[in-house]
Inverse folding.
């Protein structure tokens, strides 16, 4: 039996993947209502393929709010997502509470794995608090991505495993679980594994920032970033899988969290981290790209213009709105009449006074002076630009993430503004 302690997005996805690999999974959370919902197949998170995977392997998925049942597990993962505060700092309090609640009930020989994202030093410090874990405590780097979490959980690129002694063999029960995923295993000391996740995100941020900087130059010079990116992917020093898609700054709390962590560690140890500060500045500037376009193209002509907004979710294929750039934009448009549509997200009635949620994407466009596409849901690509033009009162489309085909939009009489290219 493999245990997952903390049933947020992280625990639910990894727990379901564990069942799919043939293991019995016991999910523990002190929220009994959550456990009952999960046992009944009602999942509080939306991920492509997750509902079907859960239904297929329901017989191996077990849930409980009773920590005593964890004694039956040979391996347990602490798998609660670590939240961030308004300054993007990790709030480790809920994780510490969960460890304190569950630790007394674990089998004395159970392997304990911290799967949550924590700063360097956290895992080793747990041994001082819980000496009995000294020979069986591990840290494992998780690399899930909202909207692709199931795929990444089932087919990981590699597992980075923090160990008290990286040269020692891994416990058989834990090794059996790891081997089921058939990926390279990289044992390393606790602190290296904890910093590895931060390092991955920092390299991603560097690509995001470089891409965004050059894409903006494209918008003003007549170059098109979509023509440049393929050339970069063929450079072996950059690679075919490099993140070269222009975006609205650094999306998601984990990236910002890691930049804050690096700057904090740098300040503590007297190292230089000016590059990280530059990334943060670039991200804040890029987040307002759509807002700047709206003011320059729409409100400058009609201060009382009505806007249609497609997408409220943080990203496509998820119902999460935490760190949603669309909602941040809407907050900045508090005085404008807005009509929005999202295939997954329904806001509470009256939650945003100037916002009406439409029942369909085209209905949101009705009599709007401009359309702003903030979440690139696939279903938006199937809507004919001619239908968009017919529904809109105006002709401007602000589509930062290139959801719509610019040539088709131009043919329909729409003027499309996208990241990395001049307006069509």
């Amino acid at each position: 039996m493999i245990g997952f302690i903390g049933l947020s997005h992280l625990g639910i996805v990894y727990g379901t993947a564990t069942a799919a690999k043939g293991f019995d999974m016991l999910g523990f959370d002190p929220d009994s209502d959550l456990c009952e919902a999960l046992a009944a197949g009602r999942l509080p998170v939306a991920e492509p393929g997750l509902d079907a995977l859960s239904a297929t392997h329901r017989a191996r998925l077990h849930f409980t709010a009773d920590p005593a049942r964890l004694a039956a597990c040979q391996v347990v993962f602490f798998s609660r997502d670590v939240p961030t505060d308004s300054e993007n700092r990790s709030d480790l309090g809920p994780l510490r509470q969960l460890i304190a609640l569950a630790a007394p009930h674990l089998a004395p020989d159970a392997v304990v794995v911290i799967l949550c994202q924590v700063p360097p030093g956290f895992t080793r410090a747990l041994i001082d608090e819980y000496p009995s874990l000294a020979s069986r405590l591990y840290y494992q780097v998780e690399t899930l991505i909202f909207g692709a979490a199931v795929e990444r959980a089932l087919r990981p690129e590699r597992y980075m495993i923090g160990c008290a002694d990286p040269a020692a063999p891994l416990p058989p029960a834990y090794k059996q679980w790891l081997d089921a995923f058939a990926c390279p295993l990289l044992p390393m000391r606790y602190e290296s594994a904890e910093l590895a996740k931060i390092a991955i995100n920092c390299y991603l941020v560097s690509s995001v920032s470089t891409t965004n900087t050059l894409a903006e130059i494209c918008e003003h010079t007549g170059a098109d970033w979509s023509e440049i990116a393929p050339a970069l992917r063929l450079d072996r020093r950059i690679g075919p899988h490099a993140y070269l898609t222009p975006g609205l700054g650094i999306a998601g709390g984990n990236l910002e969290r890691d930049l804050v962590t690096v700057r904090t560690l740098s300040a503590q140890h007297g190292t230089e981290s000016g590059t990280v500060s530059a990334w943060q500045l670039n991200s804040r500037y890029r987040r307002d790209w759509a807002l700047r376009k709206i003011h320059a193209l729409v409100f400058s002509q009609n201060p009382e213009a009505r806007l249609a907004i497609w997408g409220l979710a943080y990203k496509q294929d998820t119902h999460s709105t935490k760190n949603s750039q669309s909602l941040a934009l809407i907050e900045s448009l508090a005085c404008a009449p807005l009509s929005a549509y999202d295939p997954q997200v329904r806001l509470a009635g009256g939650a945003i006074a100037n916002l009406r949620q439409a029942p369909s994407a085209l209905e949101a466009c009705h009599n709007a002076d401009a359309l702003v596409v903030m979440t690139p849901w696939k279903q938006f690509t199937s809507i004919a630009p001619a239908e968009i033009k017919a529904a809109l009162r105006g002709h401007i489309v602000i589509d930062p993430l290139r959801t719509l085909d610019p040539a088709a939009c131009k043919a329909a009489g729409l003027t499309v503004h996208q990241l990395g290219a001049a307006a069509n």
